[in-house]
Amino acid sequence: MRAAEENFDSGPVTIPAPASAALETEPTTATSAGRDGSPAAFLDARSLIGCRHRLRLDAANPGMLAEVREDPGVQQRREAATAYRTKVRDELVGAAPDDWVVIDPALRAGARAAATMAAMRAGASRIWGGLLPQEPDTGRRGGAEFLLRDADRGGYIPIIVVNHKVTDPRRPDPADFHPLTSDLFRWEPRRDKHVKLRPQPRDQQRLAHLYRMLQRHGLASPALVGGAIGLAFDRILVHDLTGVLADYDLRYADRIAVVRGELPTQPSKVPECRQCPWWVRGPEPDQPGCEGTLAAMRDVSLVAPGSRAEVLRVHGVQTIDELAAWIGEEPEDWQHGPFTETVVTARAWIAGAPLVRRFDTVSVRRADVEIDVDLESYQEDGAYLWGTLLDDVYRPFVTWDPLPTDDEGRSFGEFWTWLMAQRAQAHAAGKTFAAYCYSRTAEDKWLYESARRFAGRPGIPTHEEVRAFVDSPEWVDMFQAVTDQFICPNGKGLKKIAPVAGFGWRDPEAGGEASMGWYRRAVGYDADSDMSQRTRLLEYNEDDVRATQVLREWMTTKAVVEVPSLKDFAR
C-alpha cells in the first residue's frame, strides 16, 4: 500500500481499504456463513467472561435478541465508554498527529480490517481503531483501540481503552508489588510505585485474545505484553501476558465450543442475571426464562449463586432441598463464609422466610439527632443529588446542570455545610448525633471525590475532614447493620430488605439503573429537559432515605419479634 506508506509522516491518516475488502462484512450475530457456505461461529473477547448459558442462548437465538429492549443502564454505560474512547483518541492523536494512522470507523468491518493490516505491514508506529481480520476457522474476531509498534523487537502491542479504573493511587511502599506502567505518549514501561493494581480479568482476556489474533499474522510483539488505559487516563497499565495465554486458550476453546453447540450448558444464577433478557423469558413463547426454570428445579444457585453453587455441585448438591438437608462437616474447599449459614439460607428459602436473625437481639446505633443520607450519581461524571431526612423533613441538595459541571461543587458544598452544622448544633446542645446511609461505598467514594475535585471552594471539606467523619461512629452504614445481624435468602439490597420492614416505593420502576435514564431526560441530554423526571428523581431519592429510616426503627422495635432466628432452623 504505497499511498498509505507515503502518508505516514504527514499527519494523522485515515486509511481507505482496497475495494476487494468490502466483500467481507461483520456478522451481526454470533454465527454467520463461513467461506465454504457452512455455518461459522464467531466470538469476541467480551464473551470470555460471564455466563456460558447466556452465551449459548444468544448464539442459538439471534433473532430474539433484536426484539429485546436493551437495559437502559447497559446502554448508557456503553455510550459513556464510547464517549471516553473518543476523548482518549482526540488527546493522544492530537498530541502527535504525525505518529498516527486512524482507521476510518465508518468503513464496514472487512474494509477496516484490510486497512488495519495494510497499516501494520507498512510499519505504522501507532494505529487507532484497528480491527483484525475475522478467523472463520478459529472463530476469533476483535480489534484494539490502539496498536503500538514495538520499535525494539518488531510486531505490535495491543492497547485497550476501558471505561473503568485499572489502578488505584497509593503512597510508595518498598515492600509492595509495583505494577508496570508507561507514559501515555512515550512507551517506557517501568515499575510504578505510585499506584496499585486493580485486578481486571476481562482486560487480560481481551489482550490475550488480541495477541493471538496478531500472532496469527506474524504481527505480535515478542515482548508478550499488552496495555490498558483506564478511566483516570494518566498512564498505560502494562499487562504481562506470559501467564495469561494458557488460561485464555482453555477458556476460549470452551466458549467457542459453547457457541458452536458442541458443549451443553445449563442455567445457574449469577450476578449477570439481573440484566439478562433470558432471566425472564425463554427461547420459545411458552418456555420460562432461567428464573422460572431454576425455581422449578429448586436449583441450589438461587440461594448460593455464582461460584458457591459450583462448589456445592461438585459435592453432589444440586437443589435447595439437598443443601437444606446437609448434615456433617462443611466441604473442605468451601471458601464463602460460614457454611452453616448457607445451609440455613436454604432452609429459610423453603420456609419462605425473607430474613433470619443471627442473634437473640437486634441493635442499631441510635442518636438524639438522626439524619438519613442518600446520593444519586451519574456514571463516573459526578454526584448530582445529596438527599437528607431530618425530623421527617426531606431536604435535597441538587444541581440540574448536566454533569460534569462546576455547579456540582456548589450543591455538594451546601450539603456538607448543612450536615456539619446539624452535627455541631447537636454537640453544642449536649446531644448525640448520627447520620445513616445504606451501603456506604458510594457515599464514601463521592465524599472523597467531591472534596478532591472541588477543593478550596466554599463549603468544600478537606480530605482529612471527610476521613474524620466517615471513620467516626457517627457515620452509620445500615447495610452493614443488616449484614452483621441477618441472613438474607433473597438478597441484602435496600429494596429487598425495606419491604420486610413495611416500606414501599412510590415508583414501581424505582432502581439505580432506571434512574440513569430518568436523569438523562431530567437534564436534557438527548432532548429538552423533562421537569417531570426531576420530580421523579427527587421522589425516588426521598423514598430511599425514608426507607433507611423505617428500616432502622423497625430493627430497633420489631425485628426481634417478627424475624425467626438461627435456632428456629437448627437440626
Describe the structure.
The chain is α/β, with parallel strands linked by helices. The chain has 3 domains: 2-21 and 72-248, no CATH class; 294-352; 369-562, Nucleotidyltransferase, domain 5, CATH 3.30.420. It is built from 19 helices and 20 strands. It has a 9-stranded mixed β-sheet with strand order 1-4-5-6-7-12-13-9-10, sandwiched between helices. It has a 5-stranded mixed β-sheet with strand order 17-16-15-18-19, sandwiched between helices. Mean pLDDT is 89; it is low at 1-39.
> How many separate domains?
3
Count of DSSP strands: 20
- Overall pLDDT level: 89
Specify Rg, calculated over alpha carbons: 27 Å
Helical residue percent?
A: 25-40%
What is the strand content? 15-25%
State the major sheet: 9 strands, mixed
Task: Identify the strand order in the major beta sheet.
Answer: 1-4-5-6-7-12-13-9-10
Global geometry: globular
State the end-to-end distance: 77 Å
Structural class given helices, strands, pairing?
alpha/beta
Q: What's the helix count?
A: 19
Could you list the spans in which at least 5 consecutive residues all have pLDDT below 50?
1-39
Helix and strand topology:
Blueprint: H1 2-6, E1 13-15, E2 31-33, E3 39-41, H2 52-60, H3 62-65, H4 72-95, E4 100-103, H5 109-121, E5 126-132, E6 142-149, E7 156-161, E8 167-169, E9 180-182, E10 190-191, E11 195-197, H6 201-216, E12 225-229, E13 236-240, H7 245-259, H8 290-297, H9 307-314, H10 320-324, H11 339-351, E14 356-357, E15 369-378, E16 382-390, E17 393-398, H12 407-428, E18 433-437, H13 440-453, H14 463-470, E19 475-477, H15 478-485, E20 486-487, H16 494-497, H17 512-523, H18 531-557, H19 559-562
Parallel strand pairs: 1-4, 4-5, 7-12, 15-18, 18-19
Antiparallel strand pairs: 2-3, 5-6, 6-7, 8-11, 9-10, 9-13, 12-13, 14-20, 15-16, 16-17
